[in-house]
Amino acid sequence: MFMIIVRQDPRYMATIIMDSAKVVVLDIRFPTLPVVHQASVNVIAWVPHSSCHICTAGEDSQALIWDLSSMGQPVKGALDPILAYTAGAEIKQH
Length: 94
Description:
WD repeats lie at residues 37-70. This protein is mainly β. The chain is built from no helices and 8 strands.
């Protein structure tokens, strides 16, 4: 099972695969670049006030904010999150 989230900007889509730690952000202008959460991702959401930030949350109780503005530049491996929050339990979407 997978989920695709489309941003209001039609150039971007984000997808996860059940029980996977990878969120793949698709930008039709560039090849895909994985955003790697350290545990299975339960939730992804675009930050409402920004076209280049996405939040992932998962089984590791972490909510991470990623800056996708560097997607068009060469990056070794995956992106690193710019902000992290640790909750008291696994983060799930209801």
